[in-house]
């Protein structure tokens, strides 16, 4: 029988099938290559961020640090105390400055009978035989208020003791 | 025409022969897809987490390294003397001895004499919470002129431990003064090497220098700040 006379040719479907088989094989091969290469790449990337080197160095440094803990504690204490000291020095009221200012403006023949300091208020009682000296004292205190050395002066009383012949002045000063 | 397909071994054998070229590649593709979703994709996700964690660990390492360099570079003797100065200025607990010494020094320098005094020390062994500025209050009588009392208060302000005069009552030559001596307890210290250590600042060193010029029982017996 002569095959070249065969009118029913089945070359088309077979060729198509072979073509599809080739395509599927190529896709399978590509899948394997993609899978392998992505595995290798991921492995290499994970190795780059390896913990071992960081952990080893960290452990060495922490070991060295353990001998310096006392130093560390001292620095922390020093910084903490310094912060508090700075606040205390900034906030505390130095009354001696105010008292010295007042002493500087009290005329020589005026005596301080009483001085009471309570927070920012100074209560003073003066006595003098001279009303003029009392007047000078009040003017000097007003001068301090004008210079903003004190914020307020309030006269409580001015009295005369005829027996002793002296004047007594009571006032409150607000710092 | 009969549409029924008999799935018997002969049919299967026929299918196998016809499509055998496709079987292995198809299985390979399916398995690759499964492996991609089951292994590769989770690995990619965890990679970013690993990268972030490594970055954080590296930062911690740098912090610990700089802490080590800082501590190694500090002179121990200097650190000890700074510590002595600040804890003399602001003791870590109620200091009975320091208070009495401060009063003695201030009265000697100002030329006044001290009368009765009364203060509440409390439980010396009790550690107060690190309240802002806990203090030891003292009420003392001072014999001297108004000027002398002013000088006493001035000297006290330049004497360690740090104090503050809160109330003054002066009558003729007898004065009553209320003084608060400050102290500051430290809370319990927990070592954490991964937290950056703050070095002593320039302003801190200036303050230490200033405090070392104050009167104290330590400075009167030797030196408060060792160079």
- DSSP strand tally of chain B: 4
| Fraction of residues in H or I helices of chain A | 55-70%
Order of helices and strands of chain A: HHHHEEHEE
Q: What percent of residues of chain B are in strands?
A: 5-15%
| Quaternary structure | heterodimer
Counting DSSP E segments of at least 2 residues, the number of strands of chain A comes to: 4
The gross shape of chain A turns out to be rod-shaped
Radius of gyration of chain B: 39 Å
Q: Please mark out the parts of chain A with pLDDT under 50 across 5 or more consecutive residues, or reply none.
A: none
Strand order of the largest sheet of chain B: 1-2-4-3
Structure annotation, total helices of chain A: 5
Fold topology:
The complex is a heterodimer of chains A (175) and B (227).
Chain A lengths: L10 H38 L2 H15 L3 H23 L3 H11 L5 E8 L2 E8 L2 H16 L5 E10 L4 E9 L1
Antiparallel strand pairs in A: 1-2, 2-4, 3-4
Chain B lengths: L8 H65 L2 H14 L6 H15 L2 E7 L15 E9 L2 H12 L5 E9 L2 E9 L19 H11 L4 H5 L6
Antiparallel strand pairs in B: 1-2, 2-4, 3-4
Helix pairs in contact in B: 2-5, 3-4
Distinctive features:
heterodimer; A: 175 residues; alpha+beta; 4-stranded antiparallel β-sheet; 59% helix; rod-shaped; B: 227 residues; 4 strands
